[in-house]
Inverse folding.
């Protein structure tokens, strides 16, 4: 499907002067578009595809590519689907693509996730700046000072860790930081959260129920799952967090061993 779309894309003026590397990247983008479209169709969720297209639009424009590139890619993808599947069998897919194209008529600029309503806004901004400056010590000392001042751990999670991680993602999407910055920031936050674990254990009153949280194979986004898991543990649920990725067989084995009341699985589209 993506190869047929690529053939059509190469016929347009958009790809004029593209190097072989540029063409490979175009084909990769078409694969991403098709993958997200298929997922949205399976979930019967047009907003899922719309959100992806808006995200891709912001990312590509931040890299200096005109919006017309994404519009043309989606248009040729739609044409390829119609030709290979047939008009009578692809109405839903075409509707999803048309809806996403309509979304591109609006200017989209993601706002900062550290907003004025955040009761720890100043501290969140300081924490973000420490991460962007690669000041690991400063980030650690800031969180420690908040704990010493009596700020509750859930407040730190919700008003610092969560919005700052979202903000890091936004900055990457806007092409203002690199993947290396993003991975460093996540690593620092993971380390600090691990250091807070004794405080969580002190405050948690066990209720005799078990939660299993698992990252499936090739899932690299553990932090969000860890934050959710910690909230359950703060409320007394024991849990098990595998630190490595797992195959389907190993996941089933872990679940059988722990016999949990609740299972959380982290999976990225």
């Amino acid at each position: 499907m993506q190869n047929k779309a690529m053939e059509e894309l190469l016929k347009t003026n958009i790809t004029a002067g593209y190097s072989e590397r540029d063409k490979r990247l175009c084909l990769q983008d078409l694969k991403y578009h098709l993958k997200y479209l298929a997922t949205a169709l399976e979930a019967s969720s047009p907003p899922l595809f719309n959100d992806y297209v808006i995200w891709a639009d912001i990312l590509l424009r931040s890299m200096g590519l005109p919006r017309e590139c994404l519009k043309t890619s989606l248009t040729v993808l739609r044409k390829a689907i119609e030709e290979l599947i047939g008009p009578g069998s692809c109405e839903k897919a075409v509707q999803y693509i048309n809806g996403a194209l309509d979304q591109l008529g609006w200017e989209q600029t993601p706002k900062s996730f550290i907003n004025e309503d955040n009761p720890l806004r100043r501290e969140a901004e300081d924490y973000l700046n420490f991460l962007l400056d690669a000041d690991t010590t400063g980030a650690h000392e800031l969180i420690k000072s908040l704990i010493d001042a009596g700020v509750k751990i859930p407040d730190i999670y919700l008003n610092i860790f969560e919005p700052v991680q979202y903000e890091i993602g936004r900055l990457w999407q806007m092409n203002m930081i690199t993947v290396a910055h993003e991975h460093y920031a996540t690593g620092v936050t993971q380390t600090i959260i691990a250091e807070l674990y004794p405080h969580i254990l002190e405050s948690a009153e066990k209720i005799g129920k078990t939660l299993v949280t698992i990252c499936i194979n090739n899932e690299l986004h553990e932090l969000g799952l860890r934050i959710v898991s910690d909230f359950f543990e703060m409320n007394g649920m024991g849990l098990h967090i595998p630190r490595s990725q797992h195959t389907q067989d190993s996941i089933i084995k872990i679940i059988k061993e722990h016999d949990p009341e609740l299972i959380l699985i982290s999976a990225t589209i």
In short: The longest strand covers residues 210-215.
